[in-house]
Every structure is written in C-alpha cells, then in structure tokens.
Specification:
four-stranded antiparallel β-sheet; Gyrase A, domain 2; alpha/beta; 16 strands; five-stranded parallel β-sheet; single chain
Amino acid sequence: MVKEQVAALLRDALQRCVLDGLLPPGEYLVQLDSPKQAAHGDFAANAAMAFAKQHAAATGAPKPNPRALAQAIVDRIEDREGLLAAKPEIAGPGFLNIRLAQDVWHKALRAVWEQRERFGRSDAGHGLRTMVEFVSANPTGPMHVGHGRGAVIGDVVANLLERSGYQVFREFYINDAGGQVWRLAHAVLARATELRPGVPRVPLDPEDYQGEYVKDVARAWLDAGGDPSRPFPEIRESLRGFATNWILKNLIEEDLRLFGIRFDSFFSEKLLHDQDRLSAAIRMLDEKGMTAMEVLPPPKGVDIDEEDYVPQPLKVVKTTRFGDDRDRPLLKTSGEPTYFAADVAYHFDKLSRGYRRLIDVWGADHGGYVSRMKAVVAAMGGELEVILFQLVNLVKDGQPYRMSKRAANFVTLRELLETSTSSMAMPAARRSCAGRGRRRASSRAGIRTPWARCSFPKRST
C-alpha cells in the first residue's frame, strides 16, 4: 500500500518530465527496492539510470546523464499527502534514496485497523465462478501429514481468490470407487469376524488395510447391525459404503475441522459412475469432433510380448490439439473406462455445474498427468490450472521412511496437531505443512513427532 503510493509519486514526476520535454512520451514503470543499508532510507529507486538514454534522446544531450534526470525527477515530485520526510537524495550514479515521514506507517496501520476484514479485498475476479479441488484423499483411513500440505495450500489459494472477488467453491473429491475400497471393505469384515465370537474367521489379506482404525470401523459396523457371518461377495457393496462413509465422517472430516479447513462439497466418485457421467462427457466431446478411433503404440514402461501384442483401435480424446504429446484413450481394449476417463467425467461434471475456471491441487507425483488434463478440459471449453506441491518425506532414525496407509506406516495429521503446543497447535502445523519458502537444495523443513521427523523437499520453481 505505502510502497505503491511512493511509486505513484515517482511515476507522476516522470510524466511531468515528459510534459517538460525531458523524456519522450510513454509509460515509465518504477521499481522500488530496499536499500542495502538502513541509513540510506526506506526505499531506493533506479528510475534515473533506467531511463537515462531516453532522457538524452529527448534533450539532445551527447551522452546519458542519470544524475541530471534524477535531479529533474526530484524537482517534479509533488508530495501533497506528506508521504516523504524530505525530497529524495541523489546517490552515486543516480540512485534515489527515499525516506518516509515518521507517521506514514501509523497512518497505514490505522487504515488496516479501520477496514478490518475488508482490508486487502478487491473485485479483480468480477465474481467468476471458480472451483478449487484439493485434498481428495482416499476414504480408506485417517488423514496423514502428506494430506496436510495439500490441504493448507488449497485452503490458502481459495482464501486468496475469495478476497480477490472470485466466487469460490471448495470441493473434496471422494475416491470411493476402485480396488482400494474393496480392500478396505474386506479388512473391515476380517476384523469384524475377530470381534464377533462364534462366526467363521475371515483372514486379513496382506493387501488389506492393516491399521488399528479398521477395528473401530468394524465395531461401528457391528453396532449398526452388520452380519459378519454372510459371505463377502453378498455384503461387499453395503460394507464398502458403510466403511468409506464412517471414515469420511469420523476421521477425515473431523481432522479437517481441527485443521481449520472447510469444504463446500464432498463429491463421490462412485456417484459419478452411477450417473454414467462419462457417457455424457464422451457425447459432448464427440459433438465437438474431439474424439477418434486410433491405434496407439503399446503403453510405456509395460513389458509386452511383441509377438502376442495385437494393436486395436481405441477411442481417444484428441488432446494433441491442445499441446499434449499424444492422444489419450478413454476406454481399454476390454471396453472398461481408463483411469483418465474417470477424471474426464469428473471435470466434465465440474464444467456442467457452471464453473469455467478450475483449480486442482495435486502432489508432485501427479506431475506427468497435468498436460493431458489441461488439454481435455480445454477441449471441453474450460480452463484448468494445476498447483503441484512437493511430497512429504518421513525420516526415522536418520533414514528415509516410506509412508503407506495400507501397511499402516504413516503419521496422522491429528498426531501432528497433538504434538504442537496448545493454542498455537493449528497455526504452527499449518505453517509446517505449507513449508517456509525458498531454501538451499540441502535444506528441509521438519516436523518432529514422538517417533519420526517429517520433512519437505525444496519446492520446485
């Protein structure tokens, strides 16, 4: 606020130089920096050196003279509001050292105090409907510290957009479809047979979720009338629904509340499939001429016997038209939707709800997915921005420690909050999860827990 006011004084002085024939007509931007030594004032400007050649051309001088232009700027400053303690001092080859009046910061603080919650708000967004989707953790266990970083970044972005005049909608995408939720359902049944005497034991599969919290889900399911004596295929759908909903309500939403994160909607992936939104998305892409049947090369990184491989045409989105390196298939050779297709359907649904600016907050491990999603959203008539954040590293006994929710090797977000101190717990934890700005490549931001340290790699630029 104050800095911009001072820059405006210098810009006005430069325009007076234009009127007096000391500079050619044009727009002259002013850069203000902090002096290296406090004795040199509050701000330093290099405008006279930056525009010395223009000054020489306008005045017919044989060579640029930054100090002469600096003096001309100083002489034409009109400080009607009393921002400056005195006229700027000319230093060295033409720097302007600027000192503020003693009461400037007091006035600025008074303005902040008077405006309170209105301070810093603007209408730059003009009410544009914008969706910020973040966290979107699988509903298969509690929030861990890795989720915390994405939660804070998404929340901050949404807050900034709201204060800038955008109509912001915050959404959590519930990944409640796919193999991981069946592993959760089977784990709950296995734990329920351990807790209920007289029923045949269902062994816990090594691929099932192993955490102690699964027993809490199993107890709740039994209390709600669940029957562990029935075969898993008969009850897996209802058990899936109960388990994911219980974890969402009792673990994830509660952790988010404690962390100061709010959402306007929790959107179910399963509902997306139940309503067959993919078919609607494909129809729209068909109408736009954005799909085709193509024979694609074999997937990268997959061992395929060339003799057995039979190329087959697949339905693809022509994402190469929007900068992607290859067109992307919507359906597998079996006719099942690809993983990409589910995200196409979800972003189609977002656009169908009237949001034209979409912002997704993803972990850096999804970086290779950005170009294809931006391309398909552009093909559907929208705009997608993706914010990537670096992942969290766990260090135990000085060694990297891999987190796995399925193997129950992770530090929960609630642990992080509980190991911070009293009233400062939530703000401190949020700052830790967001990171602390730029550092040297060897530097890490750490969070100490009773058994491990959670650290953050240097952010990508």
